[in-house]
């Protein structure tokens, strides 16, 4: 695979977090099996890491066996592990945008993003997006994108993402849920090579509303929407009680679960596979993956960050690129 796809671009993420460490750990663990390059300021990478600055992504495949290929993007400021510096915000944002440009041009086959720290981006550059997903959607021209969390044990997609729980019932509309389901089904076919994806839809309320006694959304429009999509030939069931759809026997009956809000989706996957879960953005005109963890300022620079999720994110990006 390493010679058949363009290299994977890795954006630096928050330089004061564990992003540089897990990128270094992933490079070491993969041992050149996947062509990749890192975008950012080489100063923030571990000092013991062999690094080779490249000027073009096409050089990555030849370099990756002996050093981490780096497309250098100098940052302002001097961040230290655990201490974010708002002056680096523009550089962090530019690294993401540069990665998107390279993927869309074909110079890279996928983008893998290290975790960002939104407060530092807001303080330093007025970042106007709730998170990576929304920013990538804007870079793609406003394409409706959804966030999938994926591991070998579970794929789950929240229909609403970075909003307060009290706002979920208003944000969760039939249009939003329909688009989320359709984008998920298309992503499973096109990016995961699942010809006839099976989808399970969670309810919004406890016990999926229990026939309207614990909430009316399920009976009034979620169940009719699921039935409408099933009538088109989609293999879809729901709404199901969220507390009974994530055990092993239930997971065997679907390829992806649609959750109604952030924690309903992320709690099960982080419980099942905390270290190896991967964030995949569906609906974009390019492949994007990311480790399913944050900046972890408390352990940054201590050499103990687990690179497993970054490794899986890079491997999944390479597999998805190979399927295209």
TrEMBL record:
Miscellaneous comment as given in the Swiss-Prot or TrEMBL entry: The active site is located at the dimer interface.
What's the cofactor?
A: Zn(2+); Mg(2+); Co(2+)
Similarity comment: family membership: Belongs to the PdxA family.
Top EC category:
oxidoreductase
User: Annotated pathway, please?
Assistant: Cofactor biosynthesis; pyridoxine 5'-phosphate biosynthesis; pyridoxine 5'-phosphate from D-erythrose 4-phosphate: step 4/5
Q: Which Gene3D superfamilies match?
A: Isopropylmalate Dehydrogenase
Task: Tell me the protein's name.
Answer: 4-hydroxythreonine-4-phosphate dehydrogenase
Q: Report the EC number(s), separated by commas if there are several.
A: 1.1.1.262
The yes or no answer to whether the keyword DNA-binding is present is: no
Q: Which UniProt keywords apply?
A: Cobalt, Cytoplasm, Magnesium, Metal-binding, NAD, NADP, Oxidoreductase, Pyridoxine biosynthesis, Zinc
Q: Spell out the HAMAP family in the cross-references.
A: PdxA
Q: What does this protein do?
A: Catalyzes the NAD(P)-dependent oxidation of 4-(phosphooxy)-L-threonine (HTP) into 2-amino-3-oxo-4-(phosphooxy)butyric acid which spontaneously decarboxylates to form 3-amino-2-oxopropyl phosphate (AHAP).
Where is this chain primarily localised? cytoplasm
Binding residues for substrate, per the UniProt record?
A: 132-133, 270, 279, 288
Q: How does it assemble?
A: Homodimer.
What is catalysed by this protein? 4-(phosphooxy)-L-threonine + NAD(+) = 3-amino-2-oxopropyl phosphate + CO2 + NADH
Q: Which GO terms describe its molecular function?
A: 4-hydroxythreonine-4-phosphate dehydrogenase activity; cobalt ion binding; magnesium ion binding; NAD binding; zinc ion binding
Q: Which domain of life is it from?
A: Bacteria
NCBIfam families given in the database record: pdxA, PRK05312.1
List positions binding a divalent metal cation: 162, 207, 262
The species this protein was found in: Sulfitobacter sabulilitoris
Its localization reads: Cytoplasm
Cofactor note, please? Binds 1 divalent metal cation per subunit. Can use ions such as Zn(2+), Mg(2+) or Co(2+).
Q: Name one GO cellular component term.
A: cytoplasm
Q: Which GO terms describe its biological process?
A: pyridoxal phosphate biosynthetic process; pyridoxine biosynthetic process
């Amino acid at each position: 695979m390493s010679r058949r796809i363009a290299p994977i671009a890795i954006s630096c993420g928050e330089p004061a977090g564990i992003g540089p460490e897990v990128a270094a750990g992933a490079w070491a663990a993969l041992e050149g099996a996947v062509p990749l390059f890192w975008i950012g300021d080489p100063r923030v990478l571990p000092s013991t890491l062999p690094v080779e600055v490249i000027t073009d992504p096409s050089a990555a495949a030849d370099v990756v066996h002996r050093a981490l290929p780096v497309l250098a993007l100098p940052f302002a400021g001097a961040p230290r592990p655990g201490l974010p510096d708002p002056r680096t915000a523009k550089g962090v944002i530019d690294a993401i945008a540069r990665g998107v440009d390279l993927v869309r041009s074909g110079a890279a086959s996928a983008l893998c993003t290290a975790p960002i720290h939104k407060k530092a981006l807001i303080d330093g550059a007025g970042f106007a997006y709730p998170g990576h997903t929304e920013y990538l959607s804007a870079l793609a021209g406003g394409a409706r994108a959804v966030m999938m969390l994926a591991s070998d044990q579970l794929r789950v997609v929240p229909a609403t993402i970075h909003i307060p729980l009290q706002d979920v019932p208003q944000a969760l509309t039939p249009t939003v849920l329909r688009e989320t389901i359709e984008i998920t089904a298309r992503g499973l076919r096109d990016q995961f090579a699942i010809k006839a994806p099976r989808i399970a839809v969670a309810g919004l309320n406890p016990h999926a509303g229990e026939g309207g006694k614990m909430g009316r959304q399920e009976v009034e429009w979620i169940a009719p929407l699921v039935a409408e999509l099933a009538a088109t030939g989609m293999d879809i069931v729901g709404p199901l009680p969220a507390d009974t759809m994530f055990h092993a026997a239930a997971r065997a009956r679907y390829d992806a679960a649609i959750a109604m809000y952030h924690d309903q989706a992320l709690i099960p996957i982080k419980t099942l596979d905390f270290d190896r879960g991967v964030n995949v953005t569906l609906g974009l005109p390019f492949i994007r993956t990311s480790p399913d963890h944050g900046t972890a300022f408390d352990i940054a620079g201590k050499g103990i960050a687990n690179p497993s999720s970054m490794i899986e994110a890079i491997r999944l990006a390479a597999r998805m690129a190979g399927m295209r």
